[in-house]
Structure formats: structure tokens, C-alpha cells
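seq:
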Amino acid sequence: MPDTKKLSREPAARQPKRFLLLYALAWAGGSVGYIPFLTILLPVRVAGMAGAGHDVVWLSYIAFVGAISASLGYIGFGYCSDVTGNRRGWVALGLVLSCGLLVAVHKATNLPQVVALVLLWQLGLNMMLAPLSAWAADCVPNSQKGLLGGLLAFAPGLGALAGVFVTIPGLASPDGRLTLVALIVAAFVLPVLLVGAPVSAQVQDRPAAQPERAQPLDRKGAAVRMWCARLLVQVAEAALFSFLYLWFRGIDPAVSDHLTARIFSLVLVLSAPVALLAGRWADRHDRPLAPLIMCTLIAPVGLIGMALSQTIALGIASYAVFGFSTSIFLALHSAQTLRTLPDSNRRGRDLGLFNLTNTMPSLVMPWFTLALVPYFGFSGLFLLFAGLALLAALLLSRFGREN
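struct:
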């Protein structure tokens, strides 16, 4: 294992755990804002408007324009929060706009109106998320980034559980579910805006024993490696998010969508406490990259197992290995990325560029699938993804050796 000990040795003020918890709750609010809507509420509404045979086309179109809107919004509003120096204000404005536009979706009477509202909603949501992400970069020191990453790992699971909650039969009408999601998001985000009090507005960690002039170049190279590693892992994760059900059905036609949803949610929920423990271990031992490298070495094991699976039991077990490792990787990577940002005055913009690793896979992943699955089946696709994960491990290992 390469030397991945602390990349920054300059002391920095530690944040109280109360602030970290409130911040993680707000970040979970972002997940609640989009997971139930994009995975359940929006597809149901589009299917009702488009009818059988056209819903997939409209959903694909919405996903495409939504990904572009999210990418541009994250970069643009992150940069705006850099220029104004007011993260909290932009988060509050994005909260109001995203919740308002989410509720307004029920007023759309045709599909073009739905597309327009989703595009604007994506802008509002990323107006909230981009400055919120940069806020952590401003004030959470390197010595707590592992803990922060572990806390952020709970966000996807809470988002999935929110989808289960709002769709409880009889709890709310289809339109009322949108309002209920908006209220939950507000309840999660408002506490950090109203009573969140970080120790200081700015914390800048610098690599020790390096000349000031060399720092931007070194950090830029580190940021590029972290960006590429996340993109490689996200391509595989996005494919499994979209095609897990179809792959399970290919092994055993009796597999239901409910079973697939339970497996997916269970992996997300159970991986969160493991990520928290791994993040705290990384902080205590000053080895921020070690858990990331370990995850990128474990993920290919799960993918190879999936490629070779002939029974549903082996398929589920192999997916669990892959899902656990990638969920932990993505959560911890989000926090450890903050230490590599090259310009302390443009953290919001730079995190917007990092966010492209979350949106680009949704644009390129279908082409991988169409190119490989018809000829090699899902096994060929999984073996390709295993190679990408190993490449990510190599990138992070070299990063560790150079730092």
C-alpha cells in the first residue's frame, strides 16, 4: 500500500460535531430533493401523460436535458457563490426555488411543460447544492474530512427511504407527494442555515514543506487524478443504477421490481455506517486515500462475480460487494476531494467541475451498454467496468505516492 499519509500538515481549526451533523443533514436534504422525484414521482407522472410506449422516450429526454441543466447550474452557481462570498444566501435561495418548482410540477398540463419545469428545478436544486458543497470546503479541515465523508454516506439511503415514505398508500395524493417531499427537504436544510455555526468562515490547509509557488500546480494534478478516478467508478455505478433490474431478470425472470428496490436500498443503508467507520479511521491514521484505494480494489471483485453469476443468489451477493464498495468510495471521495481544490477563491466553481463526474456518466453510459450488451451480454459490460475500477485504483495509488 502506498504512503497515503496526510496530504496537508498545517494545523486547522476543528469544527464542532454539531455543525458537521447539521451539515450532513442538509446534504441529505439534497438527496431527498431528487431521489424520490427522479426515481418514482416523475416517472409515474410522465407515464400517465405519455402513455405506454412513449414514456421511456420522454423520460430519456428529460434525463438528458436535466443532466445538462444540473451540470451548468452546479458550475455557475458555485462560481456565483465564490464571487459574492455568501454561501448561506445562495443555499437559502436555491432551497426556496427548488422546493417551489418541485411543488409546481403538479400544475403542468402537458409534457413540454414538465420538461421545462424539471429543467428549471434542476437549476434551483443546484443553486442550493453547489454553494452547500463549497461551504464544507471553506470550513472543514483536512483532519475531519474522513468523518464528514462518513456522515455524507447516509444521504443516499435517507433519500431512498424518503421515497418509500412519501409513497405509503393513503398518506398523500400524487400531487401531495410533491409537497411532502418539499417539506422534508426544507426540514433537513433549514437547521444548518438557521443555527449552523462553523468555527470560522475560512480554513485553508496547505501542504507542508513546499514552496508557495508550487502549490497550485501540485493541487491541480491531484484534483485531476481525483476527478478521473471518480468518473471511472461513477460510470459503473450509473450503469448498475439503470440496469440492475434487467440484469437480475436475465438471471432469474421471477425477480420482481420490489425485490430489486429492496436490495438496492439495503446496500445504500448498510454501507453508510461502514463508510463512517472508514472515514474516522482515515482521520485518526492520517491516511485519507487508503479507504478509497481499498474500495476500488474490492469493486472489481464484485463486478467479476457478477460477470460470472449463473444463480440469483450469487448475483445478489456479487452486487452487494460492488454496491458496498462503490457507495463507500463515493461518499468518502466527496469529502476528500475538498483537500485537492487548487484555488481557495474558486472552490464553488471547481466543485462544479467535479460534479460533472456525477452527470457525465448518465450521458455516456447508455452508449457503453448499446455497444457491448448486444454482443457480449452484461458480462462483457461488467468486465469493462472492473477494468475501469482498477484504473481508478492505479490513479489514486500514484497520487498517494506523489504526496
